[in-house]
Amino acid sequence: MTTPAFLPCGEQALSVELGDSIDPETNATVIALSRDLADAPVEGVVETVPTYRSLLVRYDPGTIRGAALEEVLTERVSSLNRQQGAARLWRIPVAYGGEAGCDLDDLAAQKEIDTEELILLHSEAAYRVYMIGFAPGFAYLGGLPEILHTPRLAQPRQNIAAGAIGIGGQQASINSVAGPSGWRFIGQTPVRTFDPAREVPFLLAAGDEVRFERIAADEAERMSAEGYTPEPEAAT
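Below the sequence we write its predicted structure tokens.
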């Protein structure tokens, strides 16, 4: 196991750097450390936030000092069990195109493929939830086919609908709430990945797997009206 590097984030948090690349193995280590701290809490640790290759650890400096916490975390990483257990697979229905998928046709033209091929490429890929951030429940997804990698817009749009399915650089996304974005959007899901009324407001979590499944626009409208929420499966 790589020795972690620590970066102070103010006086009440440490960033535990566990690698220098974005890859599933490093991310799995981040998630494993977060889970380890949840299963066997360290007195004074308030919260952990997984990211691509580091774990933000918030702590109470009146209970544990940063230097002492670094020692504890170094020991935890050295004995870490990276086995994630049964990862969750979410099948997310998507109506491609339409008002929310405003970039679908232009993106296909830019890639010199037809729209149907773009949809097939996007929907046949397996995506990993690397982290949640930016907005409540917003999931950064890795696994986008290389041909679909596309820079963000130079001028962000001011309001993109919740549920819009995006592409930004090498990543894919599901908009959790409506708001501004410079990503390219190719469809919309009726699934609400953030719902403050649910017992667990965030549907997705770091380490989950996502698969997109194409549906018709009228089916998406019906699911949205019914408040459809998928049930997770065990990832293969």
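Residues 93 and 213 are 5 Å apart (CA to CA).
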